[in-house]
Amino acid sequence: MLPLILVSNSEKEIKRFIDDYSKENNFSKDRTTEISPLKKEIVISQIREIRKKIGISSALPRLFVLYNFDRATLEAQNAFLKSLEDGALKNQFILNVGNEHLLLNTVRSRSTVIRLQNKKVPDKSEEKQSTLLKKIESTAGYSFITEAALKNSTPEETVKLIEIIVKYYRNKLAVEPNASEIIKKALSFRALLIGNNLNSQLTYENLLIFIYKAFRMKI
Q: pLDDT value at position 4?
């Protein structure tokens, strides 16, 4: 069974979809496993628990629902791919995400994406980040550092800015040779911010400087 990537930030829509899907496909509660992030992330130990359950023989297919899977560490996402190899034939996986662009390409390519039609408020942060990134790509000098100054930004707010950068370069993968390396670096900084007490401003600046250098030298 192909995994389903369920894109939505609406808890009501997500619950309605999963309830309807379970009824239509006869997934009882005792054959359904739900996983949510531990604190802020889905970690590899949670994926290992799934693999243990997959290893137990079952006459009927099972449903595994992973909420906020876009908060999974890269290590956990890679481990999930291994779980697919071991148990995709007899098990159904639903990955709920708010931002599908934070998933590994290999996860997305092996799944069916379902985008629930929740109303989306235009995000001014995305427009501002897009303008800043275009300036970094095309303008010499480090004047963008001043423009990128964060005022009392929390790590959570900085993580959202980094996620916008990831989305921006995901959309440019086909035309921008540096996009893949920039995405890897951005996801690395994002993981460090989530898991450690780092300075938000310095982390954000270091990522922007990396992007600036990526367009002027080989990385």
A: 95
